Amino acid sequence: MTGFPIQEPMKTIPILSTILLSLLLSTPSKALTMQGVEVAPQAVVSGKTLPLNGAGLRTVTLAFIPIKAYVASFYAPTPLRSYEAVLASQGPLQFNFTFLQGVSQKQVTDAWTAQFKESATATYPDLAKDQAAFIGFFGPLKKGGVETVEIVGNETRAYDNGTLRGTIQGENFQKAFLSLWFGSSPVQASLKSDLLGK
């Protein structure tokens, strides 16, 4: 008897399952909402789409009162679950800091200065100079304002509310910046865990 062979129905089930799974995995996940801030499921840096690696809340204590400072989000090309993995990544990487309170220029400068002083474990001779230049890129912000830092190739790019304010060259500064969040003395231990998606 000639003609097309009859395919058994059961054989199509694994194929359909594979197709459906692929569609589900390729569909962008919904935005995460944290403290009223919508955290996008992905970011685009230098033409490359980066999935959200992790996000968390930064709190500071003033006069024994915890203050919710900002929501931080971290984007990377592949899942990064350790400091070592972050350092080994070829990038690009992006950090967004969405502020939950309005902050003055002095508050911005003081906060970044304190973070480097307390948490930068990867140091080098010119760190003080590069640190000062980096901090100078950021100005006062209204509630909901966003500071963004991108690590692309040999550059660390600083954006204030979406506007590129300046760039620091070199891997040494990149390592110092990453140590703030993921090193042995991070800005906030719970935030380190959150940004690593743990």
Model description:
This protein is of the alpha+beta class. The chain has one domain: 3-Layer(bba) Sandwich (Chalcone isomerase). It has 6 helices and 9 strands, in the order αβββββαβααβββαα. The protein has helices spanning 12-26, 83-88, 105-119, 127-136, 171-182, 189-195, and strands at 32-34, 37-39, 42-45, 48-62, 65-75, 93-99, 146-152, 155-160, 163-169. The strands form 2 sheets. The chain has a 7-stranded antiparallel beta sheet with strand order 3-4-5-6-7-8-9, sandwiched between helices. The protein has a two-stranded antiparallel sheet with strand order 1-2. Strand 4 (48-62) and strand 5 (65-75) form a beta hairpin. Helix 3 runs antiparallel to helix 4 (127-136). The radius of gyration is 21 Å and the shape is globular. The model is unreliable at 1-28 (pLDDT under 50).
- Which structural class matches the secondary elements? alpha+beta
| Outline type | globular
Distance between the first and last residues' Cα: 61 Å
Strands ordered across the widest β-sheet = 3-4-5-6-7-8-9
Q: Total number of β-strand segments?
A: 9
CATH class: Alpha Beta
Task: Quickly list its features.
198 residues; alpha+beta; Chalcone isomerase; 7-stranded antiparallel beta sheet; two-stranded antiparallel sheet
Write the layout of secondary structure elements.
Blueprint: H1 12-26, E1 32-34, E2 37-39, E3 42-45, E4 48-62, E5 65-75, H2 83-88, E6 93-99, H3 105-119, H4 127-136, E7 146-152, E8 155-160, E9 163-169, H5 171-182, H6 189-195
Antiparallel strand pairs: 1-2, 3-4, 4-5, 5-6, 6-7, 7-8, 8-9
Helix pairs in contact: 3-4, 3-5
